[in-house]
Design brief:
Rossmann fold, binds magnesium ion, eight-stranded mixed sheet, 2 domains, alpha/beta, binds adenosine-5'-triphosphate, 14% strand
C-alpha cells in the first residue's frame, strides 16, 4: 500500500484533520501517528511507514518548528529520497532548520480553503503519477486492443517485476477469455468477482447483497467500500514470479448501463468506480483498462480515470477514422477534467518494411484529417503481424494463465524476435509513463 505520510506536532490536530479530510475526498490514502509526534516519547514512526509512503506532508506551524520529532521524521524521509510537501498552516516565521530545509519547498498556503485545495491537488497529482492508469482504446474494433492489453502489459510486468492490474472493461470480455476458458470466466462473473463490483454494491461487499448482474433495469447507487484487492482480482502469475499481474474479470452484464433508466444513477456509480480505481492506485504500479470499441458510459468512465490512452491502430483508413473519433470523444467527454494524453501504436504491421501508409502517418500527412498531431502521438516502436500474437481459445483444463503470454511461454527464433519487439514497445511506454520510480524501486 502507498500513502501520504503526515509529520505533525500534537498541538496541530485540527490542521491534521483538515488535511486528512481533504485527502480523503480526493481518494488519496494517508498515514499519521495517532498521537502526533510527541518529543521524547511515543513510538517512532516506523521505517515501514516511510518506505510505504509516496510523499511526506508537513503542516508548517510554530508547534511543528519546535518539535524535534517532526524534524527527525523530515530528515529520515529526505534521506530516503521521499518527496516533501510542506503546507503553511499558520503565520509563524520560518526559523533555523525549517527555513533552510522547508523554506525553499514551501509554495502552498493552506490557511485559506482555496490554498488547501491547490495543495491537495498537487499531492493527488503526485499520487497518480506513481501509479498511472492507461486506457487501451480505439473506436475501431479488431485493431488489437485486447492483444496489446495482455501482451504489451504482460511484458512490461515481466520486465519490471512490478505490480500491474488489468481490468476488462469490454462487455465481450475477450481479455478475460485470453487468460481463462469460458467456464472459468463465467464462474468469476457469476460470483460478482468481476468488473461490475467496481460500479455497484455486490456480494463481494456484502454477503446478503443482491447481485447487480441480476436486474437489467436496476442500478444500485448506494456507495460501498471498494473490495480488497484479493477478493476482486485474480492473480495471473504463479507465486514464484516476481511482482503481480492481476486481472479484474469482465462480464456481459455491464452492458446494462447503456439502458440505464435514470441518468443520475450513472453519475453515482461512476463515482463509485472512480473511488475504487483511486484506491487501487495505492496497491499497484500501473492499472490498464481494455475497452470496448464503441463510445458508451463505460468509455467515458475509462477516459476520466485514465492518465493516458494507448490506441492501437492498423495501418489503414478504417483505423485512422477510429483514432479521429477517439480524439474527438476525448475532447468532448472529460467534463472539465484534464484529458488523458494519447499515444498511438501501430499493430499488425508488415514485419520487414514500412508501408506507405505508416510512413505518411509518421510524416504528418494525416494530422489535419484526424484533427490532432497524430505524427507526434505515434510511438516509434510498432508490433508486427505475427501468428504468435494471434489468440487461440484457452482450452478447458488449462490452469496457468500466465503461459498465455509470449514473454512467459515458448521457445524458438520467431518468438525471440517478437519478444524483442514487445520489449521495445514497453521501453518506450515506460518513458512516456514516467515509470522510472518503478524501475529504480525494483533495481533496489
Ligand atoms: N500483431 C498481430 N498479429 C497477428 N494477429 C493479431 C495481432 N494483433 C491482434 N491480432 C489478432 O487480431 C484479432 C483482433 O485482435 P484483438 O481482439 O486484440 O482486437 P480488439 O481491438 O481488442 O478487438 P475488439 O474491438 O473486438 O475488442 C485477434 O484474433 C488477434 O489474435
Ligand atoms: Mg478487444
Amino acid at each position: 500500500m502507498s500513502h501520504a505520510l503526515i509529520a505533525y506536532a500534537p498541538e496541530d490536530l485540527d490542521h491534521l484533520l483538515r488535511i486528512h479530510e481533504a485527502l480523503r475526498l480526493v481518494g488519496v490514502p494517508d498515514h499519521y501517528e495517532k498521537a502526533g509526534l510527541v518529543d521524547g516519547g511515543g513510538s517512532a514512526v516506523e521505517d515501514a511507514a516511510i518506505d510505504g509512503a509516496f510523499c511526506l506532508i508537513v503542516p508548517v506551524t510554530a508547534a511543528a518548528q519546535r518539535s524535534e520529532r517532526v524534524r527527525d521524521l523530515i530528515e529520515r524521509a529526505v534521506n530516503k529520497g521521499l518527496v516533501v510537501f510542506p503546507v503553511r498552516m499558520d503565520k509563524s516565521r520560518l526559523l533555523g532548520f525549517f527555513r533552510k530545509e522547508i523554506g525553499p519547498k514551501l509554495v502552498h498556503d493552506g490557511i485559506e480553503e482555496a490554498g488547501l485545495s491547490t495543495f491537495v491537488a498537487a499531492v493527488q497529482a503526485r499520487y497518480r503519477r506513481r501509479c498511472p492508469v492507461v486506457a487501451v482504446m480505439n473506436l475501431k474494433g479488431g485493431v488489437g486492443k485486447t492483444t496489446v492489453s495482455a501482451q504489451v502489459f504482460g511484458t512490461l510486468q515481466a520486465e519490471t517485476g512490478g505490480r500491474v492490474l488489468l481490468i476488462d472493461f469490454d462487455p465481450q470480455y475477450n481479455l478475460t477469455q485470453h487468460f481463462y476458458n469460458m467456464t472459468d470466466a463465467d464462474r468469476l462473473a457469476a460470483a460478482d468477482r468481476s468488473v461490475i463490483s467496481l460500479f455497484e454494491r455486490s456480494r463481494l461487499h456484502y454477503a446478503d447483497a443482491v447481485s447487480p448482474a441480476e436486474g437489467w433495469s436496476e442500478i444500485n447507487e448506494a456507495p460501498f467500500d471498494p473490495a480488497p484487492r484479493r477478493l476482486i482480482s485474480n492473480a495471473l502469475l504463479p507465486p514464484d514470479k516476481p511482482g503481480w499481474l492481476d486481472l479484474v474479470a469482465g462480464q456481459f452484464e455491464i452492458s446494462k448501463y447503456a439502458f440505464a433508466p435514470r441518468p443520475e444513477a450513472l453519475v453515482s456509480i461512476a463515482r463509485n468506480f472512480r473511488r475504487a480505481i483511486d484506491q487501487f492506485r495505492s496497491a499497484y504500479d500501473l492499472i490498464v483498462f481494455d475497452t470496448n470499441p464503441n463510445a458508451t458510459f463505460l468509455t467515458t468512465c475509462a477516459l476520466r480515470a485514465a492518465d493516458r490512452v494507448l490506441a492501437p491502430m492498423h495501418a489503414d483508413e478504417f483505423s485512422l477514422r477510429g483514432v479521429k473519433l477517439l480524439n474527438s470523444l476525448i475532447q468532448s467527454q472529460m467534463g472539465g477534467e484534464q484529458p488523458p494524453e494519447i499515444s498511438v501504436l501501430f499493430n499488425a504491421v508488415a514485419r520487414n518494411e514500412q508501408s506507405d501508409f505508416e510512413a505518411d502517418a509518421r510524416n504528418g500527412v494525416f494530422d489535419q484529417r484526424v484533427g490532432f498531431a497524430l505524427s507526434k502521438a505515434l510511438m516509434q516502436a510498432a508490433i508486427p503481424r505475427s501468428n504468435f500474437m494471434r489468440v487461440q481459445e484457452t482450452p478447458d483444463g488449462e490452469s496457468e494463465p500466465h503461459k498465455r503470454l509470449l514473454i512467459h511461454n515458448g521457445r524458438g527464433g520467431g518468438l525471440k524476435s517478437m519478444r524483442e519487439r514487445l520489449r521495445a514497445v514497453v521501453f518506450e511506454l515506460q518513458k512516456k509513463l514516467d515509470m522510472e520510480e518503478t524501475e529504480s524501486r525494483i533495481a533496489a
